[in-house]
Amino acid sequence: MSDPPGFVHAEAADVDAVARIIADAWCDLDQAAWLVPNRRERRTILGEVARIHVEHALFYGTVEVLRDGTAVAVWFDRHRPLPPPLDYESRLLAVAGSSSHRFAVLGKQLDMYREPAGYEHLAFVAVTPGLRGRGIGRLLVQHHLARLDRAEVPTYADAATNSAREFYRALGYSPTCAVTVPNGSRICLMWRPVPAVEGGEDC
Questions:
Q1: CATH code of the domain covering residue 55
Q2: Backbone angles phi, psi at 78, to 5 degrees
Q3: Residue 1 lies in a domain
Q4: Given a cut of 70, is residue 156 above it in pLDDT?
Q5: Which one of 19, 130, 148, 193 is most buried, counting C-beta atoms within 10 A?
Q6: What's CA 117's distance to the chain center, in Å?
Q7: pLDDT at 129
Q8: What is the rounded distance in angstroms from the CA atom of residue 38 to the CA atom of residue 32?
């Protein structure tokens, strides 16, 4: 693989493009089929819901993209309890309609198993279809993890598939628990502690 393009922080003008990449990545997941049963509406609704969270991350986290726009990573800073997006319930109802309650239920389920504060949360990592499997997403996540390691900040991530779990394992995450979605699919919550400093004193 050729050298990856540079990493940049997304701005407000990038929100739609970031949300589209996330929707494309999530559209065929079992969890997405439960969230939005109507397949014809699924990608559109997933993109609109993702847009709400990406906008929120611009204020309460970090949204990083490759300069060529082929991969995105959305992080939330949860050193302190994270407030919900502004007018979240009404905005969710407006974009998701009858599926809005499913997004709300899943969000509450996941939050029950996360610590309230003291870490960063990797909410989304997505790569443009056709470029997956080339290590692009891994490079993007590693870029931010290196910064967090220097600051001694642990992180959470959510893995919706077996391949996602292996992706995160390779980056130093370990599973903590699994949340079962009402259709029987599962989302694995994964924790990455601050890496031990080599050469430190023995306990």
A1: 3.40.630.30
A2: -115, 40
A3: no
A4: yes
A5: 19
A6: 17
A7: 80
A8: 10
Structural domain tally of the chain?
1
Query: Which residue range forms the structural domain that includes residue 139?
Result: 7-192
Instruction: Give the integer Cα–Cα distance in Å for 155 and 153.
Output: 7
Q: Describe the crossing of helices 100-112 and 88-96 by its angle, rounded to 10 degrees.
A: 130
Count other Cβ atoms within 10 Å, centred on residue 35.
22
Give residue for tokens 């999530």: 26
pLDDT given at position 197: 62
Helix (H), strand (E) at residue 15: helix 15-26
Q: Is the dihedral of CA 71, 5, 132, 173 positive or negative?
A: negative
Residue 80 near residue 119, CB atoms below 8 Å: no
Specify if 136 maps to a domain: yes
**Could you report the per-residue pLDDT of 187-200, keeping only the tens digit for each?**
999 999 998 765 54
Q: How many whole angstroms separate alpha carbon 146 and alpha carbon 70? A: 21
* Residue 83 burial (C-beta neighbours within 10 Å; 0-12, 13-18, 19+): exposed
Task: Provide the CB-side half-sphere exposure for 181 (13 A, CA).
Answer: 22
Average pLDDT over residues 62-86: 92
Residue from 77, 172, 185, 177 nearest 122 by CA: 77
- Residue 164 is assigned to a structural domain of this protein: yes
Report in angstroms the alpha-carbon separations of 39 from 42, 43, 112, 122, 174: 5, 8, 29, 26, 32
